[in-house]
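U., I forgot to send this yesterday:
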Amino acid sequence: MRDFKFTCRSDLIYQYKKLLSESNNIITTTCEVGVWTAIYSCDIVSRLKDTIQKHYMVDAWAPIDNYNDDCNKSLEEFENIFKRAKDKMNSIDIKSDKLIYLRGLSQEMADQIPDESLDFCYIDARHDYLGCKLDIESYWQKLKPGRMMAGHDYITAEECSVLLKKLGHNLPDQKWEICCDGSINHSAVKGAVNEFAEKHDLNVFASTKDNWPTWAFFKP
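Result:
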């Protein structure tokens, strides 16, 4: 695919659904990796509830070692965050058996999703280069051919720091250049996405109006 345009991640779902409908295809099975309070999972399911049969939500909802991010909270805080996520999803007019919570480390939870079963997969868990890279690789095989993988925060560690300052956020412990194995890679999410796309000859599409850009590409 040469061109695919979307303004933000909510628009991404609209444009993707519209694109598939042009070839009489629908979105039945979706997944978000890195759910937090389920803001985007709620958006995904709400926009697709006329066709969706299964939505996976993958998140540790627990403290993670070697992750320098403001979202890495205490276990007590995560219990509250998990409850907020479930409450948000329960507010949607959809059968509860279509919502599947996979609570654990993202790469381990991937084994519970059948290969080539997903119509859409959104990556928004770890934002260091290696963590993002491993998530993309783990869930790529879960995606159907011709379908979309996307994700949040298509920026480098330096761009993240600049954006935080611009938005007035003081988060000195948020250091996406530190990978899960302790190595340093300043390219963060953008580096992992671009590297994977180059390896598999994929076109990367990015949102145009988000502070925290969303990326997307299609599986051949």
